[in-house]
């Protein structure tokens, strides 16, 4: 429910603060007083398109703040939760319009996009006028209203869920068919690849191991001769070891005769022989380590060539050849098991399609029943609105070919405005005034279903008088039992039924330099005077005051 509306520097409104209550509130005033300005400002707060022309002349910006009280289970709470807001009992929508055309939107003082503001506004308020076709121009709205009237929202949601399951099954089936077909086309190639790679049997890290071993063997070939020469010099036929050993033994036998002379030489020669033994051992180890079989080198090079050729052929690194073999083997298994899986997916898709069609068919039957009841209920409301010769109907066209997330039905409101005339779509057949009354009749029938908590009607009684205007007032008052209703009206019969009455007026300020629009809530006496003015015109007579008093009493 709209609790408060504050407007600053919008067109002719400098400063305005209004409080609203449940029930029916009316705004009246002479033509040109600024009623449309007030509604444009309200629409701006609800997410309507901004316009630099809305900013009051000479000001840099204008602002509109709308404060709502939220019921505990209102749809706006879900929208707030999806937008990462903490739902509160009071919701404040604020829109700032700058003179350069820019706008900024806020929800509870947190910046939001215009789209979020518009979605929240649509869940909170519906604005309808004689020339406002938004409520009925989209036939999806007709379907939504019919489902709401028939209490079919749960069934419609189930059909949408089954449609999504049906689509998912079909997509999975189509994907599997594509994969299986691609696998069948590549079957021969896949078998060759699996056989070749299975025979090759590449191992993880094998390329690196073979490359390192090959490099070591090629280096050993180059230094093998030098190592052999060195070993020959140290331990071969030309080795000094035998001569040094014999000389050392002779000196050791003479050591006792002249130790001071011989011992240093003996120690040095002994160390030399030990060094030669150690060098010989190292050379032998090197020769052993560097020894290779030329056939082994050839085998390693051939294996490396084969692995790398396979990697180029299958366009993968050598280390991923085994993974490629696994993929190709899986492709072959898909061909072998594809028929079984295909049959399973086809069964699942067929069952999903049957579940959807069954539910959509049942929903269609219920919609047709609800359509007849809705048409009867609306026709009853049309008679007091002087549309008693008109007939309202709901066209439900069911086509399996047109199946979709909302079922198999195309739903559209049709009317016949006169006996003998051809019925047709409501938007094409009804005039502006008739359209407004049809909409009012629909809203009365759907008062507790499918409506926003606040309904705004902008001069839907235009051109209506007497009994028709009174019928409009009666129905607005009935609507106000279920929703908050705010009506801009020129009909005293409507104004007399209001819980709150606001007068919109325009006056000169700043010694006539400019005009300003003001809105004031009327006391009982001023309200009677305003209704008398609406009855009599510029000159308010005693008879008009008495008639106004009778209207107010009759509406109480």
Task: Name the features.
556 residues, alpha/beta, six-stranded antiparallel β-sheet, six-stranded mixed β-sheet, 18 helices, elongated
Describe this protein's structure.
It is a single chain. With 556 residues, the protein is of the alpha/beta class. Helix content is 57%, strand content 18%. It has 18 helices and 15 strands. The protein has helices at residues 35-45, 75-82, 114-124, 134-137, 139-150, 153-185, 187-200, 206-235, 241-254, 259-289, 294-314, 321-382, 426-429, 432-445, 466-482, 492-495, 524-536, 542-555; strands spanning 2-10, 13-19, 24-28, 61-69, 90-98, 103-107, 110-112, 125-129, 391-398, 409-416, 424-425, 454-458, 484-488, 500-509, 514-521. The strands form three sheets. It has a six-stranded antiparallel β-sheet with strand order 2-1-4-5-6-7, with helices on one face. The longest helix is centred in the middle third of the chain and has 62 residues, at 321-382. The protein is elongated. The relative contact order is 0.13.
